[in-house]
Specification:
mainly alpha, 187 residues, 9 helices, 0% strand
């Protein structure tokens, strides 16, 4: 007779996979490693996540939810001024860089590991980055900048730079000021 999975098993599997994928990379972590770390059977893992692709998609969904909540909170706290909101967006990212467990952007990391991939996780990562870039573009247009797309490109480059050099705390310190300077120059 098959055993019934303990409540919370799916979340426990996802917790372990999230930690491993984020710190070591998706390609480096196999399903057998996750099974070993969770302490569950192969059938139980595959009952919740039929493939590694499904598990990676759930990992990215989880990060997306976290990012959406953090982004929404930062924008809400910034008020209605689009310039303040652009700065708040970058400050929120810069704040994460200061955390000892920071390992970059999981969406960018995945696309670095699988640059030409077209599985669900790669599509999810591209969609997230496109939507975030659209938000930056919308906020840049709302600032009244003479060249809003140029401003959006500059802010996006600063955000990309944060992720690329995020292990250097100085980048997190100067990025919000760089955005303020880019906004001032664009007006």
């Amino acid at each position: 007779m098959a055993r019934t999975a303990a409540p919370g098993t799916r979340e426990r599997i996802l917790d372990v996979a999230t930690a491993l994928f984020y710190t070591e990379g998706v390609r480096a972590v196999g399903m057998s490693r996750i099974i070993g770390e969770v302490g569950c059977g192969k059938n139980l893992l595959y009952a919740h996540f039929p493939s590694k692709t499904d598990l990676v998609a759930a990992y990215l969904d989880r990060f997306r939810e976290w990012r959406d909540r953090a982004e929404t909170a930062a924008l809400r706290e910034a008020g209605n001024d689009p310039a303040d909101r652009l700065v708040a967006l970058v400050e929120e990212i810069a704040g994460r860089l200061r955390r000892p467990d920071f390992r970059g952007c999981p969406f960018r990391n995945l696309l670095t590991e699988f640059p030409g991939g077209d599985e669900q996780p790669e599509r999810m990562a591209r969609e997230y980055l496109e939507q975030t870039r659209e938000l930056v573009g919308r906020l840049a247009r709302e600032t009244g900048a003479a060249d809003p797309e140029g401003l959006a490109d500059r802010v996006w480059l600063i955000i990309d730079g944060l992720y690329a050099s995020g292990f250097r705390e100085r980048a997190a310190d100067i990025a919000p000021e760089m955005v303020r300077e880019a906004i001032a120059a664009a007006r």
